[in-house]
Amino acid sequence: MTTAAAPGATDVATAAEPLARVVRGDLVESVHLGHVVVLAPDGSVRLALGDPDVTIWARSSLKPLQAVGMLRAGLDVDGAALALVCASHNGEPGHLDVVRQVLAGAGLDADALHNTPDWPLDPDAAWHWRADGNDRSSLTQNCSGKHAGMLATCVANGWSTGDYLDAAHPLQVAARDAVAGLTGVAVDRTTVDGCGAPLFSTTLVGLARSFGRVSAASSGAEARVASAVRAHPWHVAGTGRDATAFMSAVPGLVAKDGADGVYAAGLPDGSAVALKVLDGSSRPRAAVLAAALAAAGVDADVLRPLGATPVLGHGAPVGAVVPAFGPGSAA
Prior knowledge:
By secondary structure, this protein is an alpha+beta fold. The strands form 2 sheets. Strands 1, 2, 3, 7, 8, 9, 10 and 11 form an 8-stranded antiparallel β-sheet that branches. Helix 2 crosses helix 5 and helix 2 crosses helix 8. The longest helix has 14 residues. It is globular and about 60 Å long.
């Protein structure tokens, strides 16, 4: 049975190609389809699989762009605090401390947060949070740094805070304008992200372009964002997370994962990559990101351990998730 897309929607399945193959033993067990684009420093397309112009919800990969909008609107944070504004954090104690600091700097506390309550992403952090008698919280939800930054931006401008998630709020208009400007793509669709904030559409190539611009910036809000996440990669994600691992290992990399199979990354020379896994799975993202960064010119020896994604049998590796392009790809 074929299900039609909603009226006016772009079908992300159109033109999707294999991005990675899951090999167990000597058989390909499954295949992840999707789209990937690699841009050269001048913004030209160096590599494309699928449709680089496909319209997507970039999910949390938009956070560094939203942070640029907040800084332009008067948010006054840098360093670890700005990295947390860009984060999908684990909810580890060090993350929560910085979120509280951003809120306190605006004269607020966690009660001002309107993001969807959730447990910490990190299993150990979640266990300790629950053992201490706590319930799901907006503070521990992975987007609380972004929301703290949004609230601090509102306070800096004298804007209302109770309705800061309204798409027509001046804060969200500033964020939308930053997304459109950095991607070079008009925002023609808006919906609600999992955390409750407005989510703006873009294209895959637009997402890559924006990360190239942020990563290559030498001044302004873009450079502040790039400096913050490079200096504080743990605050962008956390223990055991691939975004933290990639930025810690690849000099000058700015990278941000997003839900439903999205990833974007930029290099200091303006090269950039973006990918969308069609089935929304996070399983192939590290392997595909590593292959895309290799195509952008990053040392393959540095990337190899970052992209390694074993397939387990009885707890031991019996195969791997193998990218469908680049050196070492699966046929």
